Amino acid sequence: MSMDVAGRVLVGVDDFTGTAPVVLAALAEARRTGAGLTLAHAFASPPAFGPSLWLNAYAAALPEARDLLERQAARLRAEHDGLDIDTHVVVGHPAAVLIDASHTARLTVVGCRGVGGFTGLLLGSVSAQVAAHARRPVLVIRPVGGEPPDVDAPVLVGVDQAAGGAAVVESAFAHAQARGVGLVAVHCWASMAAPGGDAYGEHDRSAPEAAAQQLLDDALNPARHRYPQMQVVRRLIRTGATGAALVRESAEAGLVVVGSRGHAGVAGVLLGSVSQVLLHHAHCPVVVAR
Fold first, then answer.
1. For residues 135 and 5, what is the distance between their CA atoms, to the nearest angstrom?
2. For residue range 196-224, what is the model confidence (pLDDT) as tens digits?
3. 9-141, CATH topology level
């Protein structure tokens, strides 16, 4: 069963209370952008081994899930000024359901480190699969290890020269504007030591840093023209461990925007090392931009 979620914020729901962080985050995104919100619950079809008490219970679970999800939607509509919220209960693997729907969704929101359903974030789990395969941006809500991010905390974006980097920067600017916060743009660079241990021999050792600064400026300038009022902090970090550096920076951010790299195959998921590090260790939610 396919879902019509064109232009909407889509969230995978396991908790029907309406207070799960992933649902509240999706609700906030819908309100910021003026988009409708779709609550989706999916579970895999039972094995076809004939009638059983388990299959009967499964059949009964479908209408119950629909009722619980619709009650949740009704409560959220009442609490949030009649926000456009619809619901879908779909029989199918949760990752496949969300990935299919993500083709037209404005944003797909998933949680992480839960038990089954939409909320796991181990390699091969639902959240990791959605983050790797979704056709549009994915927001991964990480558990808060300490205090939740300040509502005024900036959006953090990692900038490099990879193909598709302009889309990542544009996404970061758009998220920052929707939140009414500033942007911190980080570019990590590392100088290469020449044979003999001298970094650049007789050459100007400031050249690599100057090139890194130019790369960062060139990446940001097109979006700066479209968002002239945006407060942007540009930061160069000299390190070869980009993922670890961005994780540290994320402690002061309200959101991290990162690109995806690599291809996910049947046997596993590959997002690129930086994306993987952030999805597992960032101190705030992570957007995987397309």
1. 13
2. 444 444 555 667 889 999 999 999 999 99
3. Rossmann fold (3.40.50)
| pLDDT for 267 | 33
Dihedral sign of CA atoms 235, 160, 155, 116 in order: negative
For the chain, the residue count is 290
Fold classification of 155-285 is Rossmann fold (3.40.50)
- Read off the tokens for 195: 């044979």
pLDDT value, residue 122:
45
Pairing mode, strands 138-141 and 286-289 = antiparallel
Q: How far apart are CA 274 and CA 216, in angstroms?
A: 18
pTM (whole model) above 0.70:
yes
* Inter-residue contact 236 to 216 (CB < 8 Å): yes
The reply to whether domains 9-141 and 155-285 share a CATH topology is: yes
- Count of beta carbons in the 10 Å neighbourhood of residue 25: 20
Mention every residue, 6+ apart, whose C-beta is less than 8 A from residue 163.
none
List of the chain residues with pLDDT < 70: 1-2, 18, 45-58, 113-124, 144-149, 163, 191-206, 261-272
What residues does each domain of the chain span? 9-141, 155-285
Residues 6+ apart with CB under 8 A from 265: none
- Phi, psi values for residue 57, rounded to 5°: -65, -35
Reduced to 3 states (helix: H, G, I; strand: E, B; else coil), residue 69 is helix
Q: Classify 278 as helix, strand or coil.
A: helix
Give the ranges where the chain is alpha helix by DSSP (H).
21-33, 53-79, 94-101, 126-133, 165-179, 207-226, 242-250, 273-281
Query: What does the alpha-carbon distance between residue 205 and residue 196 come to, in Å, rounded to a whole number?
Result: 15
255: tokens are 């959101």
